[in-house]
Amino acid sequence: MKLFTATLATLCFSALAEADQGGGRPAPKPSPEVQEVTPQLYAYTTELLFGEVWKREQLAPRDRSLITLAALVAGGQTAQMPGHLKLGLDNGLKPSEISALITHLAFYGGWPNAMSAANVTHTVFTDRGLKAEQIIAPPSAPLTLDPERETQRKAAVEAAVGGVAPQLAEYTNEVLFGDLWRNTDLTPRDRSLITVAALTAQGQVAQLPFHLNRAMDNGLSQTQAAEVITHLAFYVGWPKAMSAVPVLKDVFEARKTQG
């Protein structure tokens, strides 16, 4: 793979340009200061990350924006969010879906990170001239969950948590899964994608098996799941991505055995 040096400078993530008109692919906006300090980072960013990884067909650009934003929110990386919010909108994310993403990640990345992300997102939405009706999804009936699976999940939560922290078990069953996961402002697959991304960003591999299985039940393919981790290596770091790989392997093998 050939790395190149350009006359203009490198990508500054907080100033990403709009995606090109051809297919939602990102068009980085050069930043002379970054190129002056880290020219090798420039080459990796333009040629590898945005020139290759973001263009791989294993995940759609919209999916890549979803998991990138999820990783940034969960990691508290708000300085990098404006450019990726703009890119996400250009890649087909609705403002209401970004709003729902932040709300969802308050539960998985913490309230402080979600609150900080909401403030940054407000600025981007204002600059784009987005109106309230574009940001707030219209009311709709909650999703209907599989009763048998929900009974099993609730029992598992009660067994693992209820005896030690009964109120946490109640919030988990009644609010997190009983309300948040049933909202229709994100599809179940989207919620699973951003949850897996947030857990990977935080190095929470103990929570990954359940949510990776749930993601695949919600429509994520094995190829797409592997690509999520590959993409996230660039945004959360190689160690966290590598730590997630054994989980993927175990889940893939278990699902293959189960038929």
Automatic annotation (TrEMBL):
Claim: Signal is one of the keywords in the record: yes
Keywords: Signal
Signal peptide stretch: 1-17
Protein name (database record): Carboxymuconolactone decarboxylase-like domain-containing protein
Listed Pfam families: CMD
GO molecular function terms listed in the Swiss-Prot or TrEMBL record: peroxiredoxin activity
Domain Carboxymuconolactone decarboxylase-like: 39-121, 166-250
InterPro entries in UniProt: 4CMD/NDH-1_regulator (IPR052512), AhpD-like (IPR029032), CMD-like (IPR003779)
